[in-house]
Amino acid sequence: xxxxxxxxxxxxxxxxLAVTNxxxxxxxxxxxxxxxxxxxxxxxxxxxxxxxNLAPDSGEVRLGGETVTGIDAIGRVRRxxxxxxxxxxxxxxMTPAEHVALAVLQRDGxxxxxxxxxxxxxxxxxxVGQLLGKLxxxxxxxxxxxxxxxxxxxxxxxxxALALKxxxxxxxxxxxxxxQSDTGRIEQALADLPADLAVLMIxxxxxxxxxxxxxxxxxxxxxxxxxxxxxxxxxxxxxxEAYLGSYANASHAA
Amino acid sequence: MTMTTTNDLITQTxxxxxxxxxxxxxxxxxxALAVVGYFLFPTNLALLTRIIAIALLVLSLDLVTGYCGVxxxxxxxxxxxxxxxxxxxSAHYGINDPLAMLAFGIVAGAVAGLVCGAVILRAHGLPQLxxxxxxxxxxHEFANKASSWTGGSDGLSGIAPSALIGLYEFDxxxxxxxxxxxxxxxxxxxxxxxxxxxxxxxxxxxxxEDPVRIRSMGASPKAALMKMYVISGAVAGVGGAxxxxxxxxxxxxxxxxxxxxxxxxxxVLGGTGSLFGxxxxxxxxxFFEDVVSAANPFHWLxxxxxLLIAVVLFAxxxxxxxxxxxxxxxxxxx
Lengths: 254, 334
Ligand SMILES: Nc1ncnc2c1ncn2[C@@H]1O[C@H](COP(=O)(O)OP(=O)(O)OP(=O)(O)O)[C@@H](O)[C@H]1O
Ligand SMILES: [Mg+2]
Prior knowledge:
With 254 residues, chain A is an alpha/beta fold. In chain A, 37% of the residues lie in helices and 23% in strands. In chain A, the strands form two sheets. Chain A has a six-stranded mixed beta sheet with strand order 6-7-8-3-9-10, with helices on both faces. Chain A is globular. With 334 residues, chain B is mainly alpha-helical. Helix content of chain B is 75%, strand content 0%. The complex binds adenosine-5'-triphosphate and magnesium ion. The site of magnesium ion has 4 residues of chain A, from helix 1.
């Protein structure tokens, strides 16, 4: 199948340190890929490069066959590439309902309307209620985000991304900071996504990775060292070495 | 699993948000204050009309600063553009119909908003502030140099508005101008209430908090802010035109840094990000400037200064904003 998302030879260095070192990756519609790797491997940087939040030194990003390397972050979102943030970025003075409504209105090209209020737009409220319900945020929908728990903010972060109805969805550690009791909601929300959506999820929780992904990509020191099935990843010697190495380093540092 | 319909969702939302009860209350308060003012200061309607014109400027500033987080000390450029456009239309082109003059003011204000927005929105924070100061000085200098059009430092005179809708002459006591001003303020207020609660208003509040996040939702902060600048310019243009029509002169002060800075002071005094805050700040400041200064010409500025410091230190949300927060907390405690 023609890839909906493709990255070719992407490179980015910070002060001589190659954080993304010649990464190539492609996804077809319906793919469920987990991107894993030790802390500092360059996973978030990869997402930033792909979405246009950060400029690559070289390489190419393609969406649905179109090269988007020269297109800014907004243009890429409008072409269906949506991300969530590892460190929650929400509007603290606004409510969950407003977040999701804004995403829905923006997606439909209605965010510039100068009259009306989303609270009295039944179609918008329908979607807001459904999506927030799915993530267990219904009861809190009219509270300020600054008043809800961090775990719930993480769920809202995902709700905003889903409300944009992406073609390619990049989730940066969606479950980090979410209480164990609520990770099921994330899984359910992901399971309910349209089958033709391509999802790339960065995640440290391996149980979640194994339940979600049909393909695992391992990034270490800015390079892809494994790209294959979940059943093979734990057996791969390079992967084991990368993780062991990072644990060894971590315990050194500690 | 329980199914919930949209109707349930809508009923769950606070009534205040749904019907915008604040709109009616706000309009009633404006009209009530207008009537009270009329009877309290029957000989000084000119002052009240000026307060209305300035209130329009402060509302306009609130749109870009309070709702969008743009730092500007040059907002009078939009007001002055409206004032000069309405004045020049009358003085040089004999377009004396007040509504036509108003239209000129609105268009000129919006164009000035477009120009200022295009420059100011290129930067953020301190550089943005500096750009805005540079702009207001340029506007001021331009008006000063183009004296054949603007009257330069002597001011633009020869403005002679005809009767409003052909019926109401602009009388010596300023009654027509006052009523005209009150109607304009009420209309603008109602319109702005709609806008700040609209999807666009919500988008702007989000941009103020985190423009990067908004980009990741596919919206362009720059485009939205430009649009808000144009709306803001139109509003300031209404204020400027009202000032030109009611006083029948336009001076360089309407395009000055001082005026820009004072409008920011008024906004902060009342509370940013709220239309009521903008109105409150204007009324309090103008009251001090005109009433208290007449009673105590040497110390009124000291008092304004002290009040401002007290507000910024102890009521950082401004007079209205703080009062509203206290009321809200009381209500929640119940
Ligand atoms: N803007 C930046 N300037 C300099 N160095 C950076 C910058 N952003 C990231 N880095 C460095 O790049 C490396 C990769 O960071 P990145 O956040 O992409 O890792 P990650 O794989 O997402 O890690 P984690 O699992 O902890 O989220 C780190 O060493 C980090 O310090
Ligand atoms: Mg990361």
